[in-house]
Every structure is written in C-alpha cells, then in structure tokens.
C-alpha cells in the first residue's frame, strides 16, 4: 500500500477515536440540562466524563496535526475553506473546556447556571457542525484548479450537509445517553436509559436516511458494507436500549460511529476533498507530504498510538465505577 | 487593514495570550510535582496543603491554556493556508508529534491526577503529576522545534516543481541549534514565571501571617517561598546563559534581528549596547539619538569580542536586496524590536534580582514580616509573564518581513524562505479574518477577567482550600451513613 493511503487510513483512525470518545462527552454536555434536573444530578453527569474529556479532545488535535503533517494541502484548503464553521467550533470548544474546569471552582448558583449553558451550547455547536463539515467533504465543494476553496459559507448549508449535522448531533446525543445509563445509577440512569431508547429510534431513521443518501449519491460499492454495519448496529442499539442492556447499547452506538467514519472516508478515497466541478480535487497523492515525512510519521504513529490507547484504556478502567448522587461531595468552590 | 494585517494581529493576539498561561503551566506542574514528592517522602502535611493549594491554581490556569492552544493549531490552516502548503511537509511533523507524544500524556494523566487522589495508590498518583510535568515540557520542545525551524530552517530542501519546502532530515529539524538554545531559554523562563508565582503568593502570605502574629500559619508557607526563590535563581542563571547563546546564534543566523534589537542603523566596530535611544525609531534611521549606552557590549554579546564588527540595518537591507530581490523592506519594525528586547531583558533580570534579595532576607530559617516584602512579592508575580511576552514579540517581530527566515549559513538551504505577506490565506476575505479576530479577542477578554478573578480568589484564600476537599474521615462517615463514599474530588 502507498504511504499516502496508509496515512489516509490513519487520519480516519484518529477521527474515529475522536468522534467515538468525544462523541459521548459531547452527548453528556448536550443532555446536561435535560437529564440533570438539579445541581447534584448535573454534577453526576459532568463527573462521568470529568477525568477523560480532556484526553478525548486530544484526538482532535492529533487528527489536526496529523493532517497538517501528512496532507498539508488538505489541511490548508479545508481549514481556510470551512473558515466560519471552524471558527464557531473553536469558540464552542474554548468555552466548553474552561466551563468543565471552572464550573466547580465558584460556589454560586448563577455561575453554575451560566457554565451549564456554556457546556450545553459548547457541546451542541461542534456536535452539529462536525456533521455539516464532513457531509460537505463527502458531497464535494467548489475548488479551483489551485485547490483553493471558492465557495461561500452558505454553500456549506445545503440539505445534505444539514442532514449530516442532524445525524452527528443525534448520534452523539444517543451515544451520550447510552454512556450515562452505563456510568450512573439511580434516577439519572433510569432517565438516561429511557431517553436513549427513544433517541435511538430517531437516530436510526435520520442517520439511516443520511447514510443511504451518502451511499447512493456519493460513494462506491464497497462502502455498502459500512452502511449495513451501521444499520445493524443501530438496530442492535434500538433493541438493547429497550432491554436496558447498557453495555451492549454502548458498543452498538460506538460501532455506528465507526461505521459512519468508514463510510465517509471510504466514499472519499482516493480523494481527500473532492471538487464539485472535477478538476481541482485534492487526492491522497496531490495533497500529501513527501514519502520521507510520511515514513517518519508512520513510525511515530505506529509506535505511539497503541501506547496512547493503553494508558487511556487504563484511565477508563480506573474510573470504571458508576457515579450516583451519593458520590457527589459538598461544593468545594469559593465565592467570587 | 487588509486580510494580511488582520491575520497578523490575530496571530499576535492569540499567541501572546496563549503564552501568558503556558509558561505558568510548564513551570508550575513540575513545582507541584516536587511539592507532592516532598509530601510523599516526608509525610509533612505542609507539603500536602501546598500541593493542593498550588494544584488548584495550576488547574485553573491549565484549562485556559488548553482552550487557547486549540486555536493555535488550527489558525495556521485558517489564516495562513499558503504558509501551511509551503511548510506542511516539515512544519506539521513536530506539531503532530507534540500531540501524540506529549499532549495525550499531559491531558490523560492530568485527569488521573485530579480525580485519582483516593483511587490510585499514593506513589502511582504521584507518578501521574510527574507524567503531566514531563509531558508539558516535552510539548514545549516540539512546538519550539517548529518555531525554531521558522527562524532557521534546516533539514529541508526546496522542491522547485511543487514550490514547497520538503523535509529530508528529521534529526536535523529536531536538533536544530536554534532549538537547542531556544528550548532551555523558554523552559527556564517558564520556571522563572512559576518560581516567582509560588514565591510571590507564598511570600505575601508569610508576611501577612507573621504580621498577624500567626507564626505557625506562616511556617506553612515558608518552604514554598524557599522553593520558589531557589527556582527563580536557578532559572535566572539558565535564562542568562541560554539567552547569551541565542544572541550569538542570532548574530550568525538573523543578523538583521540583532541589529534591529539595537536600532543599529550603520554598522560599527565595538557596537554599544544602548540603554536608551530616543527619536523616531519607526524604521527611519536619520532621527535617532542614543542617550545612554554601554560601549562594546553588543559586539561582545554577539561574538564574545568587544571590538568585533556588527553590521547595521542599512547594510543588511542592501545585502538582503542582493540575495532575495529588491522592492522589499527587509527591516523589522525597529521601535518594536528595540523596546521589546529591552523590556524582556530588564523584566527578567529584575525578577532574578528580587529572588536574591528574598533569599538574603530569609537566610537561616527566618520568617519575614516586612510589609514591603509582601507588597514586592505580589508586584513581582506579573514580571516574568511580561518578560516572556516581550521575548516572543521580539523574536517573532524581529523575524519580519519573513515568516520563514532564510538560513544564511554556508550550509544554508536554498529557496527555503517565505515572506509573511505570501503566507496568508488567499481564499479568506478581510471581513472573515476581522470576524474571527473580533470574536477571539472578545472571548479572550472575558476569559482573562474570569481567569484573573479566579486566580486571585484562590490565591487569597490560601492553603486552607485543601481542607475544603472532603477528608477521608468525613467521607468514611458519610459512606457509613448510607451509599458509597463520596468522591474525594468532583467537578
């Protein structure tokens, strides 16, 4: 296999890690004010991801850095072309990061209300916009012969992309609800399980529709396999959330996200950013770095990624216990 | 202002802002790790309280550093896409390595440290903060590798077919001599920042408690003051030594930056170090007058010889025109380079001098109750932050008009250079850059206020924040009353 293809796969792996992991902590943030009826319950929700959200987010930074290193042209065109959506994502992520860490530092109801809103909005915005962005990449964008983005912001808001945004939002909502049912106990667990059961049906319909649309209009034959896996996983998800089989439901929602990434990247290859008008498409070949750089980076990634998985896996093991309202200590924050 | 100016302002604002928080994290994480180590080894409760106290301040600061760091990685693509296309093959590698080798460790193990107080065995828990401390420093290495390559490109060739810089030697990029000097300089500056921070806050508390007659309370802070000032002194020496090395490298690699740091318009033998130059420094050499100067010092800094010849800005402009083409002003903004260089040095030296004074006052186990000492301790805290900011303003503005400065050495790299004006995104309008500039600046402004208020509030509360965490006894009692034990730490 060509090194540029290896790196195409590796970038897909990094995005998979990001969307599967941050997917549920986006979901937790999105549901904060829905499932957490009072402050203690909200703290239960936040603390299910407390030790891990930051590590989850690094998958994004790694995907970004790896794209810069392995496919500079892709990185340059994508980020300058999708300028406004990316700006909104960055602003949302900034607000989200500080809210996680600063929420408990101030003992004040109004402060908690504000940081809860910040966490909620900071999770919704990227959850929707990543879907919009990826759907546009699958669909193709206006690129000139120098691979420069020449479309407008409103070109990005086409029906296919908006359905993509709804798809990722629903996937993460369900993934988050399922995660919460798995990681909490008591009322929160019951409510999260019930919500997951209802959400999974909507997700099945919306994500299924988007996947079929993407497959039929923009993809190649073999990615039908990903569509079938996604559909199967979504069915398992619907079934297991009804039966309150929480572990299985979580695996099913994770598999759905993996299948979605396979579908997205599978439909692109060998392009990385197809041009709507054909000639300016960025491909794994014309967007990639030299073989020398790719070789170095392959070594780095092949050695370090398993290590990262090991210690992140260990973290999840250390914090494997369910959290309940009884676990939440009194506020330790100071009044500003 | 056009997209180029706006993009430059945005990069300047977001980077200087990011680097307010970063040096504190880089220096404070190891200091907190040292405090916790001392607690684990000596069982002295004072160190536990100090660990938790400075640990909370570290966390408040860490969050905003992480949040603003995300922007750093993405704005190369957003605002500087032509730069990214040109350098991606070599510049992207250290960024990706940073994420994989350092940032993952830092973020994951910080989560383990925050939430692992009673979940992990004492020594494993201690190891997690050390992992964070080491990773933040490793992080700095990779980022500086990328920056040093922009100052002095190595390990790279120019591919005229693609018009891009291509990496041929990763070893050269990661052992770039510019990097080998910049890394200790940046790290020791970070330790100076954190040392001053610890000594400043603990010193202020010590004075306050002594004056209130609470000698017992003051004794809790004293070891932190000592740790802080010792850190300041060691890092002060490191900053001086590495900075001296950097000056010599700069003379060799970026003589224009060196000359503009001195506002040296015309070359001279035995160039002086000017302490104060007045007049119109905005790139007009006609109207400047140097009022105070140290004869020969700049020549000495640059080459180790008081009489050596230092080329001036005008001469270097001609030299650059011959090498890289006419019609470009190769001089950086003299006003900015001249003053940022002086402020960096002045503020840095000032901090180290304060540390010496503090150490003298506290000799032989004394507690200090001088009111002016307490005030000075607080005033000292922002100094190294400012010195770092001016240092970056100097090194980045001094590189202008280049975004990738040419490597002038005989072993230099043909064609691997880029003017900043060429690096900006061509597909992004001025209006869009203005939108993001305003959005980031507004959000950063709000966050700065919150950060400052939180830091001040926690610093002013003192080590008793440690007692706010549920104690093992209280947790056991609550656990016995029903349900599991509450978490020892929760958001």
Largest interface: A-B, 78 and 86 residues
Give the helix/strand class of chain B. Answer: mainly alpha
Succession of helices and strands of chain B:
HHHHEEHHHHEEEHEHHHHEEHHHH
Amino-to-carboxy terminus distance of chain B:
44 Å
CATH-assigned fold name of chain A? Formate dehydrogenase/DMSO reductase fold
Number of helices of chain A: 12
Mean pLDDT of chain B: 90
Beta-strand percentage of chain A? under 5%
- The radius of gyration computed from the alpha-carbon positions of chain B, rounded to a whole number of angstroms, is 25 Å
Any guess at the CATH architecture of chain A? Up-down Bundle
Give the CATH level 1 class of chain A: Mainly Alpha
Number of helices in the DSSP assignment of chain B: 17
Annotated CATH homologous superfamily of chain A: Formate dehydrogenase/DMSO reductase domain
The oligomeric state of the chains shown is: heterodimer
Spatial order of strands in the largest sheet of chain A:
1-2
Structural class of chain A: mainly alpha
What is this structure, in a nutshell?
Chain A contains twelve helices and two strands; from the N terminus they run αααααααααααββα.
Describe the structure.
- The complex is a heterodimer of chains A (336) and B (491).
- With 336 residues, chain A is mainly alpha-helical.
- Chain A has a single domain, classed as Formate dehydrogenase/DMSO reductase domain (Formate dehydrogenase/DMSO reductase fold, Up-down Bundle).
- Chain A has 12 helices and 2 strands.
- Chain A has helices at 3-30, 32-35, 39-49, 53-70, 72-81, 83-102, 109-139, 159-183, 187-218, 224-242, 246-268, 291-318, and strands at 271-273, 282-283.
- A two-stranded antiparallel ribbon of chain A has the order 1-2.
- The longest helix of chain A has 32 residues, at 187-218.
- The model of chain A has no long low-confidence stretch (mean pLDDT 95).
- With 491 residues, chain B is mainly alpha-helical.
- Chain B has helices spanning 3-42, 45-79, 81-115, 122-151, 170-174, 177-211, 215-253, 255-261, 297-303, 313-324, 334-361, 371-380, 382-397, 420-423, 430-461, 465-468, 472-481; strands spanning 156-159, 164-167, 268-269, 273-279, 288-294, 309-310, 402-404, 418-419.
- The mean pLDDT of chain B is 90.
- Chains A and B meet through helix 3, helix 4, helix 5, helix 6 and helix 12 of A and helix 2, helix 3, strand 2 and helix 15 of B.
